[in-house]
Amino acid sequence: MRLEDIYSPIKKELRDVELLLKRSLNNSGYKSISRISSYLLDSKGKRLRPALVILSAKAAQQSSSLDEKAMISLATAVEFVHIASLIHDDVIDHATTRHNKPSINEKYGEDVSIAAGDYLYSQAFELIANCGNLDILSCLAQATRLMCEGQLVQVCERDNLDLLKSSYIIFVKKKTAALFAASCQAGAILAEPRLIYKDLLAEFGMNFGIAFQMVDDCMDLVGRQKDLGKEPGADLKMGELTLPVLNLISQTRNKEKILALIRQQGSSVALKELRKKFINSPAALKTKEDILVYIRRAKQKLDRLGDSAFKESLLSLTDFVIERVKI
Questions:
Q1: For the chain, what is the HEC assignment?
Q2: Are 178 and 146 in contact (CB under 8 A)?
Q3: C-alpha distances in angstroms, 238 versus 13, 157, 232, 242, 289?
Q4: Interior CA angle at 309 toward 307 and 310, to 5°?
Q5: In contact, 110 and 91? CB cutoff 8 Å
Q6: What is the pLDDT of residue 1?
Q7: pLDDT, tens digit, for every residue of 213-251?
Q8: What is the pLDDT of residues 248-275, one digit of tens each?
Q9: For a Cys staple, 6 with which of 200, 295, 307, 316, CB 3.0–4.6 Å?
Q10: Model confidence at 64, in pLDDT bands (50, 70, 90)?
């Protein structure tokens, strides 16, 4: 299953998002900002969040009165928030690669990276404000606060080998899933003034986002660098316990040996050993089952939506996420 096929009903709208991303970043008049902006946009991601805004708006649309211009601005804004968060994450994690090329902090330094992330956040909220809808502004402001809160708490909990799985889920909800939920919710608010589908689509986005991050965390342990676009084992290197490792700890008889491997942060030998133990243990199946719980919940939230190509694309995105799990 390819994203291009899933995105086919909104191909034009996503092209408009790309154009607005470029236009917004190139209107400063400063060559230095344009150079950094070009580097950022050359490293194109999946554009999941803007796609969710557009698909949710189209799926929830009750009349022909959808403000397409505001929708594109909103979709572009959530991508700016996402890119800004990645830039700051890479600084915090001392990451050197992103999308199989040097990260912004590796290429331009941490000072430029922090300033660039701040700049993108400001671009995002200018676009959101231009939509002229306080409910949308509140929705995305809250999501951004939760993202920052989740990141801060996760950093504070690094090297905590007693981390609970429930705490991990809270981190994921805030750091990642909150923006997915807000993308879907904001799209629904824009499209449907009576707000029938607002909470429904927000819950879809939350469950989808949790599953997406669980898959990402799983791939960080078992994936290859060329597929990830960055060095595997980054979470372990920074002392962050994620779902596959937490499941491995709980599913193994020799916990002390697993904990000893985890303590060897940055060791490629320890990473290979943990990967091998995870794949050959019940933890692999348990992790996939955990992900499927949230995939099913996400799909169920769409039952009340009317049938459309946009609803089908949302459902297909959940299948795309689970297909990334290579265990």
A1: CCHHHHCHHHHHHHHHHHHHHHHHHCCCCCHHHHHHHHHHHHCCCCCHHHHHHHHHHHHHCCCCCCCHHHHHHHHHHHHHHHHHHHHHHHHHHCCCEECCEECHHHHHCHHHHHHHHHHHHHHHHHHHHHCCCHHHHHHHHHHHHHHHHHHHHHHHCCCCCCCCHHHHHHHHHHHHHHHHHHHHHHHHHHHCCCCCCHHHHHHHHHHHHHHHHHHHHHHHHHCCHHHHCCCCCHHHHCCCCCHHHHHHHHHCCCHHHHHHHHHCCCCHHHHHHHHHHHHCCHHHHHHHHHHHHHHHHHHHHCCCCCCCHHHHHHHHHHHHHHHCCCC
A2: yes
A3: 38, 11, 12, 11, 26
A4: 90
A5: yes
A6: 76
A7: 999 999 999 988 877 878 888 899 999 999 999 999 998
A8: 999 888 889 999 999 998 788 999 999 9
A9: 316
A10: low
Tokens (6 digits) for 59: 């799926």
Taking each helix axis from N to C end, the angle separating 243-251 and 268-279, rounded to the nearest 10 degrees, works out to 70
* Separation CA 8–CA 54 (nearest Å): 12
Q: Token digits for 142?
A: 């809250």
Tokens of 56: 């949710």
Q: What's the pLDDT tens digit per position in 183-215?
A: 999 999 999 767 789 999 999 999 999 999 999
Residue 104: both structure tokens together: 């912004």
Residue-wise pLDDT for 87-146, tens only, equals 999 999 999 998 889 999 999 999 999 999 999 999 999 999 999 899 999 999 999 999
